[in-house]
Amino acid sequence: MKASQIMHPADAKALQVLKQARGFNTLVKYFMEKGDERIMRGENLGTMLRVTPDNLPKVYTAFREVVNRVGIDEPELYVYNDPVMNAYTYGDTRIFVALSSSLVERLSLPELQSVMAHECGHILCRHTLYKTLLYIIEDMGKAAQVITESLAFPAYCALQYWSRTSEYSADRCAAAVVGEQVFQSAFLKLTSGLSEIQGDPYQLVEQGRKYNEMKNASFLDRVQQACREMFFSHPQNCQRAYEIDRWKSSANYRNLTKDLSANYRNLTKDLSTNYRNLT
Length: 279
Fold this sequence. Notes:
By secondary structure, this protein is mainly α. Helices cover 72% and strands 6% of the residues. Strands 1-2-4-3 form a 4-stranded mixed β-sheet, with helices on both faces. The longest helix is centred in the middle third of the chain and has 30 residues, at 149-178. The chain is globular, with a radius of gyration of 19 Å.
């Protein structure tokens, strides 16, 4: 899989600009490698449970399948204790993915792979490196008084907007790897916090459609909702479900899933066999 196959247009435009700062990119990568990556690895080893072939082998096997499909080097995988279902990734040289314990407990194996694939999508697009780069530029600009407070607010809003579009790119990776139906099923559980969902699997898509209708009903509605969303680092869940439902009708989605389908059938068969052998 290539990053260009899953990137949201707004995400691609922002990354194209950031990639031109090659010298600064190298510097940020160096400081990440020598600083945050080492600090966070110590924290991970000290406070989380690392997933290996011998420790949580079912989860590890599922993760390996996702990594192979996306086509990235295998990151370290950890599980941390948290009743809130969440996951995140960090690093550019020594990358890791962290899953909350509630994710592992409440999601089915394919749904868990959807979350894993989302984080692998961030890795494929190198979002962590470029988000770190932007934060450093903003902080240095303030410290050197190149960026004033009046300029910092628009810069922050722009950064949050890009952060939201980067989530759409990672969602596309998840939908391509596990299929959009599994993605929607996982998102229902992530939104509700429930381990079992009964009813319409596309409920969030319908809510996204109704939300867009409400938001665009008047100028006042557009302003109110835009002000409410402008500080969010992630899109609202109904918007994410709606965007994937739209993307599944695109030629890009069809071509990508077609390219991956034969390999996916083999991986699913192997995963099922491994899962039965472990139970």
